[in-house]
Structure formats: structure tokens, C-alpha cells
Amino acid sequence: MSSIASLIIGESGIISEDNQNSIPLKLLEMGCLPGAEVTLLQVAPLNDPMYVIVNGSHLAIRKETASKIKLINLESQNGER
């Protein structure tokens, strides 16, 4: 299991159910819910923040916060990895 912070640009994952109290309320309100697909779009020049798409919405997330949000890798879910 990885986190948003460990994604490579263009890579996607599904927010895991194991994120008990690790996702800030503001991100939950913006759609960062368990089961949502996350794709890394870009990383700022100093590696913070990270720009992601979550359920069609573009969000900027601090790397510290992104490292706490656990993901299920899409490739491993489809058996390709």
C-alpha cells in the first residue's frame, strides 16, 4: 500500500478504507473519500504542494498531508503489476 506522496506523475490510485482520521476534514469535503480515484498531475518546483485530480476536481495537497493518505495502487488492483 502506498500514499499519494509516493505517486509518480500520471500514476493513479484509489483512496484506501484504512485512512482512519488521517484525511483532514477539508479534503474529505472536497471529495477525498475512501474509494475515490486520485491521479498525480504535477509537483511544484520545490516538491510541495502536489497537484492531483480527485473525482474530476483539481486539488493542491501539501506533501506532508499526501504522505498520510493511503492508496491502493490501480495496477495491483487490476493484476497488471
What is the residue-averaged pLDDT?
87
- Provide a count of the helices: 3
Query: Sheet with the most strands?
Result: 6 strands, antiparallel
- The beta-strand count equals 6
pLDDT < 50 stretches: 76-81
* CATH-derived architecture: Roll
Radius of gyration: 12 Å
Question: What count of domains describes the coordinates?
Answer: 1
Helix content: 10-25%
N-to-C order of helices and strands:
EEHEEEHEH
Characterize the overall form: globular
Report how far the terminal alpha carbons are from each other: 13 Å
Determine the structural class based on helices, strands and strand pairing. alpha+beta
Predict the CATH topology: SH3 type barrels
Task: Give your account of this protein's structure.
It is a single chain. The chain has helices at 25-29, 63-66, 74-78, and strands spanning 2-3, 12-15, 37-43, 50-54, 57-61, 70-73. Helices cover 17% and strands 33% of the residues. Strand 4 (50-54) and strand 5 (57-61) form a beta hairpin. The protein contains three helices and six strands. The chain is an alpha+beta fold. A six-stranded antiparallel β-sheet has the order 1-6-2-3-4-5.
List keywords for this structure.
single chain; 81 residues; alpha+beta; SH3 type barrels; 33% strand; disordered C terminus
